[in-house]
Design brief:
The structure holds two protein chains of two kinds. By secondary structure, chain A is an all-alpha fold. Chain A has ten helices and no strands. Chain A has one domain. In chain A, helix 6 runs antiparallel to helix 7. In chain B, a hairpin with a 2-residue loop joins strand 1 and strand 2. Chain B is elongated. The two termini of chain B are about 30 Å apart. By secondary structure, chain B is α/β, with parallel strands linked by helices. Classes of the chains: A mainly alpha, B alpha/beta. At the A-B interface, helix 1 and helix 5 of A face helix 1, helix 2, strand 5 and helix 4 of B.
Amino acid sequence: MTVTQDKPNYGYSPPLLSRGIFLIQIFLNKYMYDKKTYILILISFLPLLTIGNIFRPGIDDYVNLVGPASIFSFIVMPLISLILGVSAISDEKENKTISQLLARPVRREEIVVAKWITIMFIGLIIVAINTLILYLGFYILLPESIDLFGNLSVLIGTWLYLGLWYVVYATIFLFLGVFIDKNAIGLGLAIAYFEVFFGQFLFGGFTGASPFSIANHINYIASEYFLSDYLSFSIANFEVFSSVLVCIGLVIGFLFLAAFTMRRKDFP
Amino acid sequence: MIELENVSKSFGDVVAISNLSLHVRAGSITGFLGPNGAGKSTTLKAIMGEIYPDIGTVSVLGENPINNNRLKQRTGYVSEHDDLYPWMKGKQFVSSLAKLLLPREEAERAAKEALKKVGLAVKGKKIRAYSKGMKQRLKVAAAIVHNPDLLIFDEPFGGLDPLGRREMKKLVLELNQDGVTVLISSHILYELDQMSKRMILIHRGQTLAEGAPSEILELIDQFPHQILIHAPIDHLKSLSKLMIDESIITSLKFNPDKSATDLIAITNNPKEFYPKMTLLIAKNNLSIEHLESTTDNIEAIFEYLT
């Protein structure tokens, strides 16, 4: 076989880091044009509908609205992490665009890691916007409740709390999207609510402090590090550092599982 | 260049390919022909490393295709699906994917060249606004941007109008002249027989025949061909008698759906049938208004061959 001189066969492969950056660029571009991104931002207006009944409002009420057992942690966060996490890879499978990626010199594991970085970036921005909307919503609708600049540490604390929530759950759901070909969203929703409701209450003997609940570990970390003045939460016989390790372990473990599953998967 | 040895693949209870072997020679255009659901796409995906065979071996340019970056620098794949990013513009799509294969500055230049080669010069239009033909050409541009040695096309003519098909065929032939080995699948025989140097027939996940298009066509010609003849009733009667006397048909019937001016002739030897019938018509001064082969059902042909 001959290859003509004026049409060189390049035989070049960009280094791993460059490939990763180019992949992330492609994926980020997708989220910029995806309606889901904007719907997830709009969802944050929902909790504002509930603040009309607050008597003598204060910053505690803002924390209660986004904190443990709130509308935000029970409804908004599972939705954000589920939709971004599950659809990260399953959208590529459904739209068949995974074929374009698999036909390039990119390892399957690289696709998973690049997707994970992208959804972390997008998700954390969405969570930051959501918390800011709520914070400003409180300030505008209940002016005496929040000192706009004086309570900035609370705004950052709630962002860190929900951000941690998002990082852990979205990674689990990313794995689910790789592992399951159909109805991954439905199963993810079932897992999220089973974990949030039953993990916290049933396994914890309705004390709300079971070590078998991921949400409890996140609440524990938040009460110690991010919102220590506003939240009081602990898991019996458990150090907060152990909860940090649990969260790190879950993220690394499920990311590894997602990459491993992707490597072994067929894309018919 | 491509070697598949006894490859089988099932998805649950569905056997997609079974004990399939095929060989593609370097520098050739190989047609991969089979009815819908025969296992063509599964075979091509196994070649591209998108699926793992249950048993058997797949070798492309001497290497295992799964997760093989070195190999992907030398191959291009045009899938049967609209696997494009609709929010992107054409050039952005080709150059974004080219950056995974080429140095950054080279990728932009190569993307421009590839688009020029496929005759796609659309500026400022998002892919979602492209026609089927434009999307098909864009997919080809993305597949050839790095000048691969091997190109795999999965049903590239699907949804194209006759002009689009002709242009696509011309493009495939040009690429092959440039030294690119091409494996191209279709479920329509006439799309492949003129451009392919070799053809592989696949049915129910197994290779049925492999050889030059002339050999394959000969094999297919053994299938009883059905020919519809439309002519004035008197001429049709005379022609029927002559065809029976000359023994160029195995059976004859009037089209039950139409008027008596339609006749269906069945022959086992179409190669002999057409010249002899032309001769009979000319010698006896008969007139024929319309004549066509109604044997276009490739699935029936494959059923017959197995």
